[in-house]
Each structure stands twice: as C-alpha cells, then as structure tokens.
Design brief:
The chain is an alpha+beta fold. Among the domains are: 42 residues; 55 residues, OB fold (Dihydrolipoamide Acetyltransferase, E2P); 134 residues, Helix Hairpins. 47% of the residues lie in helices and 27% in strands. It is built from four helices and 13 strands. The strands form two sheets. It has a six-stranded antiparallel β-barrel. Strands 5-4-2-7 form a four-stranded antiparallel beta sheet, with no helix packed on it. Helix 2 packs antiparallel against helix 4 and helix 3 packs antiparallel against helix 4. The longest helix has 64 residues. The relative contact order is 0.17.
Length: 352
C-alpha cells in the first residue's frame, strides 16, 4: 500500500467516525425530545371553568332628600365624576346663606376687637418697666429729701439755721413726695392699661374663635350642598337604576349600579397539583357558549397565595390529605361588550 492509499483510507475512517457521532447525537436529541413531548402530553391540561365578572360600584347620595333630577338611564355610559342625579337643594342653600351671614358677622366682630387693642403687649410691658424705674427713683428722692428736712428741722428748732434754709428743705421734701405720687400714678395707669390690653386681647381671640367656628359651619353647609349632586365614582355603564325622579332617598341608599364592562375578568380555581405551572402574565384562551367559534385572549393578573377550599376529601388520613385549590384571576379585555357578566367561561392557560 503506497502512501496515497494510506492517506485516503485514513480520511474515509475519519469521515465515517464523524458521521457516526452525528447520527448518535441526532438519535439522543430525538429521544429526549420525544420523551419531553410524551411528558407534556401526559400532563393534565391547565383548563378550568369560571364565570365572567366585572367591577361593580354602587352610586349613593351622602345626604337624604327628594330626587329633583335623574340625569342618567340604564345602559348609558358614564365617565368618572359625571353628574348622575340631583336632590332638591333649597333647604340646604338657605342653611348655607345663614352660615355665610353668621360668618360675615363674626369676621366683622373679630376685626373690631382687633382694632380695639390700644397697644401691643410689648409696648405695655415697656411702659410698666419705665414707670417702675421712675417710682424707684422717686422713692430714693423722697428718702433723701426727708432726711434733709428732718436735720434742718432740728437745727431750726435750735436756731442753728435760718428760717429760709428750713423752709427750702421742707419744700424740697414736699416736692419729692409729689414726684413720687405722680410716678406711682403713672405706674398704676400702665398696670391698668395692661389689664385693658389683656381684656381686649381676650375679646379679640374669642371673636377670632367664633369667626373660625362660623367658617367651619359655612364649609359644612357647602359640603352638604355639594352632596346633593350625585357623581359617578367610576367610568362604566349604568347596569341598574333603583330609584326615579321625585322619590325620597336616605343617605347611603343605592341609586345606580355602575359596571366597568370594558374590563371583564374570569376567576377560576386551579388545584395545588397544577398551580405551580401557572404564572403571572401567562396567556390564556377563553371561550363562551354563545360564541363557540370565537376565542378571547387574556392573561393571568392575580394568583391567590392561600388555598381556598378542598376539591377532594382524604380517603385515608394516614396516607392521603385534602387537595386544595387556588384562585386565579384572568383579565379579559371586552372592547366590543360581547362578553356579559354571568356568562360561563372556559379557560385554557397556555404553557410555553
């Protein structure tokens, strides 16, 4: 065998080995794929039956009264904040006017009380301090003048000083006493002013409190008046109308039922054996009896973390236990309003 024949034989063996390896890999992959397909096929499908539901809200007045106007009918679409009905508001309007008048009067009284305060507390305290200082200075002057007068009086009795000197000392003592009296009067006046300011301040604070109370009464009356207008709490469709124009209604009595029919949902229960295969956001196919050939598409938006109830009783307490189910909520858009609340819906949760 020459060298060329040997090389050719080696190439053939290499290619043959490579093909064998590829064939074995393909067989292994096919075997695994088939095994997985069989496993998936033998699993129970994620199907369940539930009922089409929607968010429902009742609209009620916060105050009692007689319905003056009904502004919406069953089947009509309403937007959040839209006025649906109105009560007779004449009595509440009168109460609001009364409260507004009392508030205006209280405000005027408060302004008058504020203007009647002659001085600020700081100004009064400064005046008292100054008057007290003058009284103390005058008392010192009286004491000095009295000592001088008493000495001059003894000397005058002994003819040691002239009558003029004695008279001057006596007059100085009388003058000092007058100065003290005037300083004390000024102090008494400042103290009286402080009492007047305190009284005026108290009157002003009382008037301000009455004004604030009257303002609260106005706000309360306005709130009652505003509540005579019934506004839609959510956007949706009027699915029930309980009262008519002219009827009396109590606070909290349901007047309308509003349903958000554009955003329906289906609640189903999945057993604990399957719940591990359900994920948030998972695609779901929904069918209803009235449209057997139509498939609606939704997605899982909520999975209850707690089991709801047992779907199978234990046969043997030692070897078996109750199997619980978990509530799953599926959001199903309903733009054409073809889905109606109460319809039986069959769901198929798609696994990837």
């Amino acid at each position: 065998m020459d060298i060329f024949t040997a090389i050719k034989t080696k190439k053939i063996m290499t290619i043959t080995l490579f093909l064998v390896i590829i064939t074995l890999a393909a067989l292994l992959f096919f075997s695994l794929y088939k095994s997985r397909a069989v496993t998936i096929a033998t699993q129970e499908s994620l199907t369940a039956t539930g009922t089409v539901e929607t968010k429902k809200v009742t609209a009620s007045f916060k105050v009692a009264g007689r319905i003056e106007n009904m502004l919406a009918e069953e089947g009509s679409r309403v937007e959040q904040g839209q006025e649906l009905a109105r009560l007779d508001s004449r009595e509440l309007s009168a109460k609001l006017n009364q409260a507004s008048g009392a508030f205006d009067a209280a405000m005027a009284q408060a302004r008058y009380a504020g203007e009647s305060v002659p001085l600020t507390s700081r100004q009064i305290e400064t005046a008292i301090e100054q008057a007290q200082a003058k009284v103390a200075q005058a008392e010192v002057g009286v004491e000095t003048a009295r000592d001088l007068y008493e000495r001059m009086e003894d000397l005058y009795k002994n003819s040691a000083v002239s009558e003029k000197t004695y008279t001057d000392a006596k007059n100085s003592y009388a003058l000092a006493q007058n100065v003290l009296k005037e300083a004390q009067a000024a102090l008494d006046q400042a103290l009286a002013a402080r009492l007047k300011v305190d009284l005026a301040q108290a009157q002003y604070e009382a008037a301000a409190g009455q004004s604030s109370q009257a303002g609260g009464a106005v706000q309360e009356a306005q709130a009652y008046l505003d509540n005579t207008r019934l506004l839609a709490p959510i956007s949706g469709f009027i699915t029930q109308k309980n009262l008519e124009q002219g009827e009396m209604v109590n606070a909290g009595t349901p007047v309308f039922e509003i349903s958000d029919l554009l955003h329906t949902y289906v609640k189903v229960f999945i057993s604990e054996k399957k719940i591990g295969r359900v994920l948030l956001g998972q695609d779901v196919e929904i069918t209803v009896d009235t449209y057997p050939d139509r498939v609606y598409h939704g997605n899982v938006v909520w999975i209850n973390d707690a089991g709801e109830f047992a779907v199978r009783k234990a046969v043997n307490e030692q070897y078996d236990h109750d199997i619980r189910s978990f509530e799953v909520k599926i959001d199903v858009p309903n733009p054409d309003l073809s889905l109606k609340t109460g319809m039986t819906a069959r769901v198929n949760i798609i696994e990837q």
